[in-house]
Design a protein that fits this description.
This protein is of the alpha/beta class. It has nine helices and seven strands. The chain has a five-stranded parallel sheet with strand order 1-7-6-2-3, sandwiched between helices. Strand 6, helix 9 and strand 7 form a beta-alpha-beta unit. The longest helix has 19 residues. The radius of gyration is 18 Å and the shape is globular. The structure holds zinc ion (ZN). Zinc ion binds next to helix 2.
Length: 229
């Protein structure tokens, strides 16, 4: 890890470029310039309204921040396969945090990343959802909210037979993919489950359902960076 003063000097001597447009970033910007961040396509109100009934099946709010068009697709690809954790942190801070701040007034938030399997973690080097959550926590803290990242879930080895799980749950293949770890969210805090992309929503719903099984009263929010078509 580069120390702060050293990274400051490095940025002056070797300024980095915006991941999207290639312009040189200012010292206050990281990965993507402010203009490109402002122009990333946000999800419509209608789309987020369509997610609500899905979320309400487990008593959770549910929304996605960005539409999965060309440029967002490239960003998500860089998150997943490019090992680009500063980009994940930047998007968490400048996209997820403002998105949440508009939608909840909860004073205390626990940000929980959707876990990836240890084998994938070794191959990829990092969990993109964890860094999205860390960036999001920084953005919420800057706005005066209490926000903390907690990894409440672990990814399980995927079992070949899902038969036993599917009898008890609505979320088919995603059920049984996660397990709870020993950490518990503080009572009353809004738990925000964070994933990078959202297709059917089955991962977020299965993970959310597991948390609700342990604590049915837990205020829960399912949040994805981008909604795929
Ligand atoms: Zn740019």
């Amino acid at each position: 890890m580069v120390s702060k003063p050293l990274s400051f000097l490095t940025r002056i001597v070797f300024p980095s470029q915006c991941h999207q447009c290639g312009t040189l970033l200012t010292l206050h910007e990281q990965s993507v310039c402010q203009i490109c961040l402002d122009h990333l396509p946000r999800t419509t109100h209608l789309l987020n309204q369509q997610l609500q009934p899905l979320g309400s099946t487990i008593g959770a709010c549910f929304s996605a921040a960005l539409s999965f068009d060309g440029e967002v697709q490239i960003l998500c690809y860089a998150l997943k396969y490019g090992g680009n954790y500063p980009l994940a942190q930047c998007l968490g801070r400048h996209i997820l945090a403002p998105h949440l701040l508009k939608r909840t007034s909860a004073p205390h938030l626990i940000l929980c990343p959707i876990p990836i399997h240890p084998r994938r973690l070794r191959r990829r080097g990092y969990n993109q959802s964890l860094f999205l959550a860390r960036g999001c926590a920084l953005g919420l803290q800057a706005a005066g909210r209490s926000a903390q990242v907690m990894e409440l879930l672990v990814k399980r080895e995927h079992r070949k037979s899902q038969v036993n799980f599917s009898q008890f749950t609505r979320w088919g293949n995603a059920a049984g993919a996660f397990a709870l770890n020993d950490q518990r969210a503080p009572e009353g805090a809004l738990v925000v489950l964070i994933d990078d992309t959202l297709t059917t929503g089955s991962s977020l719903l299965a993970a959310g359902e597991l948390l609700k099984q342990r604590n049915p009263k837990m205020p829960l929010y399912l949040l994805a960076l981008a909604k795929e078509d």
